[in-house]
Amino acid sequence: MAENVLYRLYEWYISRGLSQDKMPKHVAIIMDGNRRFSKLQGNIDVVKGHEIGVDTLEKVLDWSIELGIEIITAYAFSTENFNRSEHEVEGLMKLFVKNFKRLVTHEKIHKNEVRVKVVGRTELLPESVREAIKEAEEASAHYNKRLFNIAIGYDGRLEIIDSFKKIIQDVQAGKITIDDVNEDLVSKNLYTKGLADPNLIIRTSGEERLSGFLLWQSSYSELYFCETLWPELRKVDFIRAIRSYQARDRRFGV
What we know:
Largest sheet: 6 strands, parallel
Number of helices: 9
Distance between the termini: 48 Å
Radius of gyration: 19 Å
Oligomer: single chain
Helix content: 40-55%
Strand content: 5-15%
Structural class: alpha/beta
CATH superfamily: Decaprenyl diphosphate synthase-like
Order of helices and strands: HEHHEHHEHEHHEEH
CATH class: Alpha Beta
CATH topology: Undecaprenyl pyrophosphate synthetase
């Protein structure tokens, strides 16, 4: 009980200096550490670690709404993750189906007017997952107050390649010329088209790399790495990341 009170006091203490004027509009997250967490918990089933990670993501969405952050983009499953064990991949696909279906009628999604969007090569996913994604996206498509992006079947290099393929097709079709190709046109053909680039990218578990996440969009993003494993992320960890972002002197192109 005393420990919980102290934690609440500390949470209040580090939150009080946050500036709403400097709040990032778009925070992207690399949710790393689910499998390591499973091993550290006595080698529990790796899928259980991912289940706990889903709970953490829901908390982060809550914290973001509280802080006034408009866009959250979470890296949930890369194209390389298909190379993991059959048990883990199947478990993750079942989790996706279960939780996207939950989002269809989720009270917090509708109360806070959160639009759900999946970015990535969804054609690589099982039909059951694609159907659940479609249900969640359609149920929240009319919202524009907040956006919850989930990157699944995603790879930043493939995203850039796919963008250029679309542009080449348009050039060949005579819709545009080579002189029309610029940064803005590339951005408009990415999976995240129409979306503001992330102001802040957070990665958990102590790893300090992007692992192919939002490679084009992260050109001027602030990066924050924390040691905490994703399933163990606390609100104070998230607030520390926001505090770090707000303390930085952002210089573009330098």
